[in-house]
Amino acid sequence: MTTATHAKGLEGVIAGETEICNVEQTSLVYRGYEIADLAANASFEEVAFLLLVGHKPSSDELGAFKAELIAERALPSAVVEFLKTSGNLVNNEYAVPMDILRTAVSILSHLDADCQDNAGDANLRKSKRLLAQIPTVIGHMQNSIEGKDFIAPNANLSHSANLLYMMTGSEPTPEAEKVMDVSLVLYAEHDYNASTFTARVISGTLGDLHGAVTGAIAALKGKLHGGANEAAMEMLADIRNDIGSDNDLGKVTDWMHQAFADKRKLMGFGHRVYKNGDHRAPILHGLGRKAAQARGEDFIKLFELGEMVQKIMEDEKKIYPNVDFPCGMTYFTMGIPVPQYTPIFVASRITGWAAHIMEQHANNRLIRPRVAYIGPAPRNWND
Amino acid sequence: MTTATHAKGLEGVIAGETEICNVEQTSLVYRGYEIADLAANASFEEVAFLLLVGHKPSSDELGAFKAELIAERALPSAVVEFLKTSGNLVNNEYAVPMDILRTAVSILSHLDADCQDNAGDANLRKSKRLLAQIPTVIGHMQNSIEGKDFIAPNANLSHSANLLYMMTGSEPTPEAEKVMDVSLVLYAEHDYNASTFTARVISGTLGDLHGAVTGAIAALKGKLHGGANEAAMEMLADIRNDIGSDNDLGKVTDWMHQAFADKRKLMGFGHRVYKNGDHRAPILHGLGRKAAQARGEDFIKLFELGEMVQKIMEDEKKIYPNVDFPCGMTYFTMGIPVPQYTPIFVASRITGWAAHIMEQHANNRLIRPRVAYIGPAPRNWND
Predict the structure, then answer these.
(1) Average model confidence (pLDDT) for chain B?
(2) What class, spelled out in words, does domain A41-222+336-362 have in CATH?
C-alpha cells in the first residue's frame, strides 16, 4: 500500500499539465486570453477556434471554420430517428435531456468514419462535427418534447443564434443572440473541472473522443457540476412558490434561514477553486439583468430576488455565486426550458473537452491513481 | 496557482478511500477475500453479491439474488430494436461492440424508473438490473453481427453459462462455463483502475449510475485498459500471420526484437500497479491452457506461442503479463469473437463499478483536481 496521505476529492492536487486554460483565484485564462477580454471582444466561434486549434483565428481561418460548422450541423438519420422518440422518453419522466444528449452523442460515434482514429487530425474533425451537431440535437429534442416538427438548421445564423432558433423556431433578437453567445464563451473551458477530467481519464486509456465526450456529458449532468444552473433556477422557483413574487426581504431571509437550518444545499453557490467569487458570475449577471429589463417586471423581480439570495449567502455564509447562479436566471429570462440549461452548457463546453482530449492523446499517460483500503481484514471464503 | 508538484497520470497518488478492494504488489483482495481464494471457491454470482452488497451471501440470499438476476435479463424493446441495427453498424466498420454496448446502456437508462435516483436502494436495484442485462446486450449484438435471430436468455443457466449461450446458441460444457466464470471473478474489481475512477468522478458530481457506467465503458474500451485483452490476441494473431504457426523460437525471438526496435507497444504486458507480475494472470493462464488441451493442437500451440512471447518479455524487458494476456488466448480458445472480449470484461466489471458508484454516492465529495498551466503568457484579444 502506498502510504501517502490523500486529499478527499483530489482537492488541491495537481493532476497534470495543460496549455489550454489557467484557473486562478483572480483570473480565468483561455490560452493566454483573460475571460473578461474574451467575453467583451470575441465571438463564441472565435473562442471555439482558439480552444480547438490553439491560436486566435485569422479572418480567413474564422470564415472557413464557420463554414465547416454550418456544413456539419445536420444529423445522420439514425440520430434524427432516435430524437423523434426523445419527447416521449422525457415526457414519461424517466429520462431527462442530458441523458438523451448523452445517448445521441453515443449514437453519433457509430456513424462517424473517424470514430476509431485518435490521431490529431481525426480528433479535430470529430471535434468540429460534434460542436456543429450538438445544437441540432438540443433543438430537435426540444421540438420533440413539445410535440413539434423538427426545425432545420439555419445556415445564415451564428452558432448561438442557430441554437436558439432550432429550439424555438424564431430567429432571436441581436440582444438575445449576444447574451447566449457570451454565456457560451464563459462556459467553454475551465481546466480540470470534473467533466473535463472525466474526458481526460477516458482518453488516457486511449479511449476515443466520442466515448470521452459521452462520459463528460454524464459528469456535467450532476448537480454539483453543470446541473447546478438548472438547480439554481429550481431553487429560485421554489422560493417564489413558497413566499410569492413580491420579494419581501423578511420572507426571503426567513426562507434562507429555514434552508440553512434544514441543511439544504443551495445550488449555484460556492466553488472548489474560487473561494472569493467566480468572476464569470458578474459578467453574466450584468447581461442577464439587461435582458430582464427588456422583458419586463416579472423578470426584473426574478433578478432582484436572486440578488437578495446572493447578499444573504455572502453576508451570512461568506459563500459567493458561481456562474451557474446568474446563468439560471438569464436562461429563464430568455424563455429557455429549465431542463435544457445543462445541455446548452454542453453546446459550449464541448470545445474545452475536445481540446483536452486532443492534448491528452498527443502526450498520453494513463490516469490511474491508487486508493487507501479501509475495508475488512483478510478472511477466507470457506471459513 | 497551487504549487505542489504533480505525478503524471496520478501515478502513486492516493485519490480516496474504499472498503471494496485492495490491490497490492503481492495480493488482490475483494472485501477481505484474496483473489486466488475467490477464483477457487466462489462463483461469479457470489462474488457479484459480495461486491454489491458487502458480505458473502447466505444460501438464501444467493438464491434470491440469482432469481432476481434471471428475472431482469430481458431488455426493453427499444434496446432490442437498437441492437437489431448493431450488426450493420459493426459490419460497416465505423462502430465496434464496445461502442454499441455503451449506447445500449445509455438507452437502458431512459427506460429505468430508478434512473434519476441516487439513493442506495435505487442504486442497488439498477446495479442488479445492469448486471443481468449486459450479457443479453452482448448476446443480441453478436447474433446481430452474425445476421442471426436473437436468442432469449435461458433461466436454467448461470450468469456465465447464459452469457456464452446467448452469443452462440449452444449451452456451454461445464468446463467452458467454469473458465468463463473464473475469468469474470478475476475481472470483477480492481480498485481505482481508470474505468472505475471514471465512474467515481462522474458519480462524484452526483451524476447517476447509468451515466457513470456509460463513461466507464468508454474508458474500459481503451487499449491501455480493458481493450488490452483484444489487443493481446491481435498481437499473437499478427505473430502467427508473420511467422506461421510452427512456433519456431528463433522466428518468435526475431519478431519480438523487431517489435522492440520498432517501439511497438506489446499489449497485455506491464501494469501501473503490479511491477513483478499480475497474480490473476497465472490463474487464468492455467485454466485457459487446460481448455486448449481439450480443444486440440492448434490451441495448445497458441498457448505455447504465448509462453514464448511471455518468456522473451520477462527475460529481455523484465515486464510481466497482466491478466489480459492469458485472457486473450483463453477467450480465443473458447471460440469467442475477439471484439467481444472487452464487452465480456464489462459483463464482469459492472459489479466493481456499481459498488464504487454506490460507495461514492454514500459519502460523496466532488472529485476535482487542479492542473499546472504551461500555456501562453497573458495577451490581449485585440492586440
Answers:
(1) 95
(2) mainly alpha
